[in-house]
């Protein structure tokens, strides 16, 4: 009959672009760093939470958290985007709604248990813990660009110094699982209370053992206390 349906997805426009774009071009002060970190942790805690009721939502794990999938708002807080790989927790059966797509997350941000395939894909908490690992790497990216007394580091991706620009799973597995390397914490961070505190948080995000990592909600509360 000559009719068709168009499906439109209308979202907010964030002119600052992705966190990756923003940090590549600009550095931040300690307060802005903290607000960015807090807003990302708040977003992740909200995703991970099961909310019951008519306006409720299932618990969701992102599975591809990285600076290119985080947008910077005009007030310099952040929001999480690109839920193309996300999985949801089905409470009634305590199972995970794994998508049929064979796409995997970004290798550079993959948690050790994802890289070595020991992750329990039938347990929703496993995916939340892998998200938290990636969050720790994002916090490191922001902290490097924090300007304290005119001193800051150039923007770099996590593991820039040990893998090639487009690393293979094997490369990342060697660095993260076998050698158990993590991004370097510059000595200058110890001299700034905010940077020192946030470096302790990121270290608790990227523990080798998934169950030892902080929850997104715990990170949110810790960062709230630093504001």
Automatic annotation (TrEMBL):
GO molecular function: ATP binding; transmembrane receptor protein serine/threonine kinase activity
Pfam families named among the record's database cross-references: PK_Tyr_Ser-Thr (PF07714)
GO terms, biological process: cellular response to growth factor stimulus; response to stress
Assigned keywords, A-Z: ATP-binding, Kinase, Membrane, Nucleotide-binding, Receptor, Serine/threonine-protein kinase, Signal, Transferase, Transmembrane, Transmembrane helix
InterPro entries in alphabetical order: Kinase-like_dom_sf (IPR011009), Prot_kinase_dom (IPR000719), Ser-Thr/Tyr_kinase_cat_dom (IPR001245), Ser/Thr_kinase_AS (IPR008271), TGFB_receptor (IPR000333)
Family affiliation: Belongs to the protein kinase superfamily. TKL Ser/Thr protein kinase family. TGFB receptor subfamily.
EC number(s) reported in the record: 2.7.11.30
Protein's UniProt name: receptor protein serine/threonine kinase
PROSITE patterns in alphabetical order: PROTEIN_KINASE_DOM, PROTEIN_KINASE_ST
Membrane topology classification: Single-pass type I membrane protein
GO (cellular component) term, any one: plasma membrane
SMART domains for this protein: S_TKc
All residue ranges annotated as the Protein kinase domain in the record: 1-226
Subcellular location: Membrane
């Amino acid at each position: 009959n000559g009719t068709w349906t168009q499906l439109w997805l209308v979202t907010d426009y964030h002119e600052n672009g992705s966190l990756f774009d923003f940090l590549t071009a600009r550095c931040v002060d300690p307060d802005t760093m903290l607000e960015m970190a807090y807003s990302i942790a708040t977003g992740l805690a909200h995703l991970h939470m099961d909310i019951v009721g008519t306006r409720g939502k299932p618990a969701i794990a992102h599975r591809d958290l990285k600076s290119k999938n985080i947008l910077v708002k005009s007030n310099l807080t952040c929001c999480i985007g690109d839920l193309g790989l996300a999985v949801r927790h089905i409470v009634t059966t305590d199972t995970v709604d794994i998508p049929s797509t064979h796409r995997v997350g970004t290798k550079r941000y993959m948690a050790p248990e994802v890289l070595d395939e020991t992750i329990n894909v039938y347990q929703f908490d496993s995916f939340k813990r892998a998200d938290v690992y990636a969050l720790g790497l994002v916090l490191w990216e922001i902290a490097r660009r924090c300007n304290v007394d005119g001193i800051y580091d150039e923007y770099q991706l996590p593991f820039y110094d040990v893998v090639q620009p487009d690393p293979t799973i094997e490369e990342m597995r060697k660095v993260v699982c076998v050698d158990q390397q993590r991004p370097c914490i510059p000595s200058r961070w110890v001299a700034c209370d905010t940077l020192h505190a946030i470096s302790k948080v990121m270290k608790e995000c990227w523990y080798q053992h998934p169950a030892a990592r902080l929850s997104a909600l715990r990170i949110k509360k810790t960062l709230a206390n630093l504001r």
